[in-house]
Every structure is written in structure tokens, then in C-alpha cells.
From TrEMBL:
<feature type="region of interest" description="Disordered">
    <location>
        <begin position="195"/>
        <end position="216"/>
    </location>
</feature>
<protein>
    <submittedName>
        <fullName>Flavodoxin</fullName>
    </submittedName>
</protein>
<dbReference type="InterPro" id="IPR005025">
    <property type="entry name" value="FMN_Rdtase-like_dom"/>
</dbReference>
<dbReference type="Pfam" id="PF03358">
    <property type="entry name" value="FMN_red"/>
</dbReference>
<dbReference type="GO" id="GO:0016491">
    <property type="term" value="F:oxidoreductase activity"/>
</dbReference>
<feature type="domain" description="NADPH-dependent FMN reductase-like">
    <location>
        <begin position="7"/>
        <end position="151"/>
    </location>
</feature>
<dbReference type="InterPro" id="IPR029039">
    <property type="entry name" value="Flavoprotein-like_sf"/>
</dbReference>
Length: 216
């Protein structure tokens, strides 16, 4: 079985050591992945000087290249984000913007470097917006080359107008726990499949098409 490593990017707005519900859920995902034999780490993005931009390195002390190196060494990426105004956090959106640069990064066979990497999402917040946030983040990650597994998201939202955060929720809801375990199981499974059977390069896909069926 292929050795699989995960990177959890916590996109909270709060710098350490402030308490973070998205960090709690992110670490629960990391623990669940550990039960599937996956090792990894969690990074709170806002603790690092990540610059705005759409390149792999914005220079001037930009911390993204170091985070990106860990991402490239991992087979699973999990974005953990809170919901604000029904949207992913601004930190999450900044991370997605930085990942836009991966559309220009390819291997010697023309494949995006993110091909073969699995992406999942963990969301916390009050009231509504979890499905919308998951949809936004998964679509963006898939567009830049990541593969999203079945049941590749977990979330928790509190009741409308309540101020309880996931970090303080007692007892933790079984529904979120089951979703977290499914995310971990399917992400690890898919990552191992892709490690053993990588996506074909673009030339191979073109060659697989019958010339008689090609338009033009």
C-alpha cells in the first residue's frame, strides 16, 4: 500500500493561540485519516505571511512557497474553513487564488502537478451556508487539478441566531463524526488508487481517440 500524507490548511481568520472551531474539525479529520494509515499535519494559514496573488511565489518574504512545498509532498489536501456571510473565509479564498498558479505547473508528461492529489473540505459555522461553501471550494480545487472523493466533505453548523461554536458543542454531533470518517476513508482510498494508477498524460488521451471520430 502506498504511503499517503495529508496536509490540512486551516483557513480561520484567527491567529494562534486563539481558539478555532475549524482547527478542531480539521484535527478531527487528521485523526480520522490517521486511522486509515495516513500521516500529516495541520497549518493555520493566517499564522504565516502568505501574500495575495496568483503565482507560486509572490516574493518579498511570501510564506506560500514553503506551504506549497508541503502541499506538493502530500497526496491529500483538506481545506478547513469557517463560514462568514454564507461564504468561505477570505483566507480560504486567498488560498484558492494561490492555487490558481497550479494551472501553469506541469510535469514532464504535461500533467498538472496536482493531478493524482485528492482534495476534501471541512466547514464550520453558525446558521446556513455549509453546502454552498463546500460547493465553491470543491469546484475550485477540482478546476486546478485535484480529485474530490465521494463524500469528500464534513461540516457542522449551529442553529440560527445561536452563538455556540463547534469547539464548544457538547456532545459532538454523530452526523459530523460519521461524515468525517467517510471523508477520511474515501480520501485515503482514492489517494492510494491514484498513486498506483496515475492519470494518463494529455498525449495518451489524444491517442486513445479514434482518428475517424475527431472533429475538424
Amino acid at each position: 500500500m502506498a504511503d499517503i500524507r495529508a496536509l490540512i490548511l486551516n483557513c480561520t481568520l484567527k491567529r494562534s493561540p486563539a481558539r478555532s472551531s475549524s482547527e478542531v474539525l480539521g484535527r478531527e479529520v487528521l485523526d480520522a485519516l490517521g486511522e486509515q494509515g495516513v500521516t500529516g499535519e495541520l497549518i493555520r494559514v493566517v499564522d504565516h505571511d502568505v501574500r495575495f496573488g496568483v503565482s507560486t511565489d509572490e516574493g518579498h518574504g511570501d510564506a506560500w512557497p514553503q506551504i506549497r512545498a508541503k502541499l506538493m509532498a502530500a497526496q491529500i489536501l483538506v481545506i478547513a474553513t469557517p463560514i462568514w456571510l454564507g461564504q468561505p473565509s477570505s483566507v480560504c479564498k486567498m488560498v484558492l487564488e494561490r492555487l490558481d498558479a497550479e494551472l501553469s505547473e506541469t510535469d514532464d508528461q504535461g500533467r498538472l502537478l496536482t493531478y493524482g492529489k485528492v482534495a476534501a473540505v471541512a466547514v464550520v459555522g453558525n446558521e446556513d451556508g455549509a453546502h454552498h461553501t463546500i460547493g465553491q471550494v470543491q469546484q475550485a480545487l477540482n478546476e486546478v487539478g485535484f480529485t474530490c472523493p465521494a463524500a469528500g466533505a464534513t461540516y457542522w453548523v449551529g442553529e440560527a441566531l445561536h452563538k455556540t461554536d463547534y469547539i464548544d458543542a457538547r456532545p459532538k454531533p454523530d452526523t459530523t463524526g460519521r461524515a468525517t470518517k467517510a471523508l477520511a476513508l474515501n480520501s485515503a482510498h482514492l489517494a492510494r488508487l491514484l498513486a498506483e494508477q496515475p492519470y494518463p498524460p494529455p498525449d495518451a488521451r489524444d491517442a486513445a481517440v479514434d482518428p475517424a471520430q475527431r472533429s475538424g
